[in-house]
């Protein structure tokens, strides 16, 4: 204080109070404690220095992270979110350390205790990471189990359709099983795959269990390819599960088709003999073929010998195409084929007779000529030639085919046949006896127009100035049908005549050829 000379007192001056407590001395431990407490993600470092707004900002950031991360997903938290959150924690720790360096603690007695608590609270985010990883693993397991369930459902639905319709779905289900085993071998889903594969095989191979052997072939062949996709280690005994079943299906399907006279039995027997040559089923192939040949041979004497001959010819070709070498059946199958071929050649006679009696004269000609050519020493060869001649005559004169010709020859009546034709001709005749012969061309003769043969007074072989090639044959009493046709001319129709022969007469038959025109 000061006094003026008059003794009066001066006013007292008081300095202003500070707006905030003076900063505390710098304390690195306090800074570290605040930084560690902020790393928990809860902003506790800001709480001990009474920075409530910043603490709330930490809560908001952590809440956003939890909203993005939960519920746990197999793909985890997006990488950008994690990076941003870690940057935020680093900034919060750095900023908290800066604030705590010169700010006194409000809630804890010492920086050392705060630092220790910060270290302990680091277990919160660490434990959260561990718990989240566990939740993520469980989510992954559930995702894999869902894939497994969808594949199982696909197999069940496919089992209600034919294999051809469902094959694509079967392959998709198998791809799922394979991916689970290969990509996630330790998962619960992968551990269930072996049992699911047993169901898979049983479903795909269901036609075999139902004894639908032909339908079972394709799915069983498919199952034999599965080890290439799954590996024998995963499949175990299933890798050979289809083998016996496929061999049985191939045999049963082929044997049924062979017995019924239809189906692609050669392909199935061929696959059986190639894929399973030493199997019991392969050993049954030759007996089945032999039985089929026996049945066809017996059918030659039945109601439809032509069908039996056709079947025997087919068996001959088909049996020779079977790959019997590996199974040791080549010789036996060759003998079966030879017997089918021989029986077909000899059975052609019965077929030709059947065709003739049914009025199929053109077929009978072809069949009997083939028979005579292929069986030069057969006992029926001579009659087959007669039937071929009679059938050829019957194509022009149907009445000639009313009865089968015999091998009889000769007779008491002389018939002279003359050729009034510019072509070499063949004369065929049938009736009580049947035969044919050739006559040389008449050099000075011409082909008659069809119209001229219809005119009144037409009389071939009547020109006394011509030398007609001729031949005399002897025939029995009765009706004989003649046909003569050109052997070299084209576009010329065979001529025919019906002669009723009686005793005491000498007959002359004139052969000529006609063409369209007058």
Structure report:
The chain has 518 residues and is α+β, with helices and mostly antiparallel strands. It is 56% helix and 10% strand. It has 20 helices and ten strands. The protein has helices at 28-38, 44-48, 52-69, 79-100, 111-121, 123-158, 163-183, 188-204, 206-209, 213-223, 226-230, 232-235, 241-260, 265-275, 280-283, 285-299, 305-320, 330-357, 361-374, 381-396, and strands at 413-419, 425-430, 435-439, 448-449, 470-475, 478-486, 492-493, 495-501, 507-511, 514-515. Strand 2 and strand 3 (435-439) form a beta hairpin. The protein is rod-shaped, with a radius of gyration of 55 Å.
Task: Describe the protein's topology.
Elements: H1 28-38, H2 44-48, H3 52-69, H4 79-100, H5 111-121, H6 123-158, H7 163-183, H8 188-204, H9 206-209, H10 213-223, H11 226-230, H12 232-235, H13 241-260, H14 265-275, H15 280-283, H16 285-299, H17 305-320, H18 330-357, H19 361-374, H20 381-396, E1 413-419, E2 425-430, E3 435-439, E4 448-449, E5 470-475, E6 478-486, E7 492-493, E8 495-501, E9 507-511, E10 514-515
Parallel strand pairs: 1-9, 4-10
Antiparallel strand pairs: 1-5, 2-3, 2-6, 6-8, 7-10
Rg over alpha carbons: 55 Å
Q: Say how many strands there are.
A: 10
Which strand order does the major sheet show?
Answer: 3-2-6-8
Give the integer mean of the pLDDT values. 84
Shape: rod-shaped
Structural class: alpha+beta
Identify low-pLDDT runs.
none
